[in-house]
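Q&A log
Question type: sequence-to-structure
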Amino acid sequence: MEATAIVLYPSPLIGHLVSMVELGKLILTRHPSLCIHILITTPPYRANDTDSYITSVSAANPSLIFHHLPTISLPPSLSPSRNHETPIFEVLLLNNPYVHQALLSISHNFSIKAFVMDFFCSVGLPIATELNIPSYFFFTSGAANLASFLYLPTIHNITDKSLKDLNILLNIPGVQPILSSDMPKPILERNNKVYEHFQESSKQFPKSAGIIVNTFESLEPRVLRAIWDGLCLTENVPTPPVYPIGPLIVSHGGGGRGAECLKWLDSQPSGSVVFLCFGSLGLFSKEQLKEIAIGLENSGHRFLWVVRNPPAQNQIGLAIKESDPELKSFLPDGFLDRTKGRGLVVKSWAPQVAVLNHNSVGGFVSHCGWNSVLESVCAGVPIVAWPLYAEQRFNRVVLVEEIKIAMPMNESEDGFVRAAEVEKRVTELMDSEEGESIRKRTKDLQNDAHAALAPAHTFVQHRPRPRPIGRRKQACLNRPEPSPRPCCPPSRRTHLRSRQHLRFQRNRIQTVNSICTSRHRTVTLSIHQPSFKILSTVDRILLLSRGSIVHHGTLSCLEAFLLSHGFTVPPQLNALEYTMEILNRLPSITSTTTTSSHPNDPMKHDKQAIRQVIRYKSSRIEEISALYNQFWKIIYRTRQLLLTNTLEALLVGLILGTIYINIGVDKQGIEKLFGLFAFTLTFLLSSTTETLPIFINERQIFLRETSGGIYRLSSYLITNTLVFLPYLLTIAIIYSVSVYLLVGLCGSWQTFAYFVLVIWIILLMANSFVLFLSSLAPNYIAGTSPVTILLGGFFLFSGYFISQHNMPKYWLFMHFFSMYKYALDALLINEYGCLVSKCLIWYQESKSDSRVCMVTGGDVLQKRGLHEGQRWTDIQILLGFFV
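Response status: OK
Response body:
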């Protein structure tokens, strides 16, 4: 019987090679009868970098057979001074004849079941296709980076600018919105040769038999779901099966050169050491190394720091040729002596996996290379993310904002990081609540990673939605062959448990359904991948796509809806699942109602759709009636707030009444009355600002419902006024009674009624004012500032502090624009109009019993430029403010 084999084709970079070798080991643990052949390309720089690693792996794993391809010589113009990706792509392109020859040679003795390429090696896909060998891509980075890689042609087609010049947020499916400048460095410059290489590679992925990605589902669930659903490729390009088989990391190791640092860690307290290591290619300038050293020293924390020689140009670069550094030549004077005992600086290399898994290590300052990220997760060590090259800036965004296992190291525009920032981040990671939260999250993912690495872990193939069958299927890496046994047979216990879980979920849905029916309530549920049996319990289904309604009705009429649009449900699928597969191809309800005389003119069609008049479903009376009932329900639900406002009005009225009790009409009484009225206005106008967040929160609902034709804007305003008129009148009466009687204002019932009217209008005007500002403010914080500033300005220019005659002419317009002015004038006219002919202040000569009236109520009004005839004019102006 012919032996079977799988051929692996890694990139020459050491990190990519290590991941590919770990993949080979993993395959052998599942299928020990296979032989794994690995094609080795000599790197265009640091040519001996992988030799010792390959020798040790080959000795320990005889089933891993390494084939060294001939060395490729590149011209000097392709030196890796600017980036290391271009020479690698060129070497791999020139490698094709040797790859072809190697595959033919292997096939003489083995039946090759799969050819697995690193994503850098996509130029080898035509060779495997020609030889009829199933081809797979191995993506050594995470699923988020894979999504961006698959989405790259889409980004390329929607802009003709370089990503570094766009300065926009990119919305890659399943990925946190990311700045264009944070995309992988090799693709930032559109005119670079390496950009073209990545473009061509991304176009090859859909042509493969599958994509293997070094991640696990609980680490990146959202982006994996987006990839499986086919959202990262254009509509006409199917997504191949995607296999998350990670985390693939090297074993602990740690012997030889690493013995010194591991021995030092043994003497350190648990979780006390910060480990700093920046990958196999990262270098820092002398200035940057000094800043790191100062930051570590000032932080006071224990540290283990791997240091390499700085690059020749004294800037951040790539480690192309390397020798052990002379530490004292670029570290601060006395640094090693001052930190001796609590810090250890290691030259060039340390056994990273062994260090991260040491009990003494509590934090990791990393360049965000994906291998380092997975090693840190498997060790449960939180990260300070300091990206240097390749896709590491992209990884930082994912780690900090999406996965939440890292905090960012913030650099300047030129990439330089100050000592204060190093000190700050190290301290926050080790001591702060945020650091503890990140540490807990990392520990949780560590458990998930160990579960994914367990021998009994099942690899699941996920087929994306655009394919005819949108279900998960169990599969092995090699091409499926007829066999009576599945690759990963589910146990009977698992099957029974899933049936019990399904029955439990159906009972829960039915219980919620009965609650909705009996109590006339609406319940919103979020269900992850509900089965068809669960969905069949739902009365009506609303399907949305691209912001429009596609279908709204019962489940039973869904198949007829599909038939009416020319779609037939396949026998192996139910109507709802098939609809989810073709959702993007179905027309929306709103688009079919819009007609155009030129259907082939999309611009004209869009303009007519925009101009389409909203058709309201109910009359204005019906809208007002429905809104009136709804508003009163809202008031009842928030009755605690309304009751608080009522009690507030009563208490403030009683307190003011006791302070100004029996105020009198003498000179002191006049001054006190002015203060009473001014405070009344301030209290009534400022107390309504607490409704600002309510209006702002309701605004989105209001805009959505009015634009959807549910009710008119005028109906909303009329109903709002009708509901709050009686409530605010009640507040006005409660406040007026307590103040009016205790203070001893004019005893006429007409003046009391006018006083209540003014207070009522002030409350209406204040609510209207807040509602107006809430329609302009984007949020509560932005709305509070203009409310405070305007109310303060109205009070200042009301005439209470500065009379109209003493105001600068260029500020006089604010006096007439102030709401306080007309309310204060109305209250003064009401009180002193009642006392217009009554003498308030008498003058009595010392030697005579005769008295002379000095001030009457009319004099008080005249001094402020007021007269009785303005009584209703002020009311009209206040009503104008309200409207």
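Response note: Residues 540-611 form one domain.
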